[in-house]
Request: fold
Amino acid sequence: MEMAVQLPWDEISAEYTSFAKKFARDIQLPGFRKGKAPMSRIEKMYQGRIEYDFINEKFYTFYHKAVLETKAQPVSEPSVTHYDFKKGEFMEFTVQYDYIPEWEMPKLDRKIKVDKQKYVVTDTLLDAQLERIRSDHAEITPLEAWEPDASIVARLEELDDAGEVIPDRVTESFTIIPGVDPFTPEIMKSLEEMASGESRDIILKNESDGNKEVPLRITALSFERRVLPELNDDLAAQIDPEVVDLPALKELMRKEYEDNFERNSQELFRQDIITAVAKAAEHILIPDSLTESYLEDLRTENEKQRKTAIDAETYRKNNWEQAVDLLRWELVRNRLTDERNIEVSEEEISEHVETVLVKPDTQNRDMYLQYFNTPQARKDLRSKLLADKVFAAVEADITVNVVEKPVER
Reply:
């Protein structure tokens, strides 16, 4: 966008006079003490310098005032293409900048539909986890050679399409336990009678990735027999001294799974809300310069966290659409917050700290309170609680379809 601004002298004369006086305080002319020379002589000698410094100091004040009158929302630094200043007459300048045009709030109503996954913890999942716990508490006896139902301590190497080992996909030591996922009876049969040091290639199905087939080279290092303990109240007490019996342990495990699944489900649900709202807000034009800047900030932050270089062009290409969605969501979220006066009080922050963060862990209560009473921690917590309220407001307006999904492994 290009904007031409002209300010008549009567609008800027007071500010110019004040600036010139401040400028004069630092000037010392022959025959006068510092700052005491007549303004007429100072202006005669330094008029060009005064005007130049005045423009530099006051430009952003006049620019932002002009922008407010246009109701535009700049998203980039202004580029000055022309300026002129004549004392006693006018100041004018022309700037170019990117901006977000005025936009209408999308309708947040029942026409927006979002699925919310509700993961159901099954007994099959709990039984499988209990079997893994039994395995972790097994009595281990080393074997000189492979035997039926023996566990195999092996090196696992993932292979590429050409059958070559992928260097960064190697696990030096992994215990393959018969009957424990993902090593099915069919796979265990293919590993029968292995010798120490022998390698065999298998195909493993990765169920967490749509049953994707993963070629593996398995090299046997040693063999062992694992005698599993009985699954009873004694084992339950050994695992968690606070439970009274095996059913209590199982219910505790169920609750932990449900809490974890709920957190994951809520995170995915919020991502889907953002996508759905961004789609309803497709009419909001996001300048490319804003998206570029946003992605560059994210890429730089990811580089710091991963401590490795990320190709800027590839990152930009892979994340452009998601970045535009997030920027549209931020605009809608901020306006929604203002229009509905959504806010978080100091009392709400303190209550959250007391009931959610501190109460469950009385042993570290003082440490938690000390941390969450720091300005930065309270600021971060305020942002989180505000986000919770905004998502709750959107969820109340749209259609949410709860989809139950049993989890068996």
DSSP finds eleven helices and twelve strands in the chain. Residues 138-227 form a domain with the Chitinase A; domain 3 fold (CATH 3.10.50.30). The longest strand covers residues 212-227. The first helix runs from residue 9 to 24.
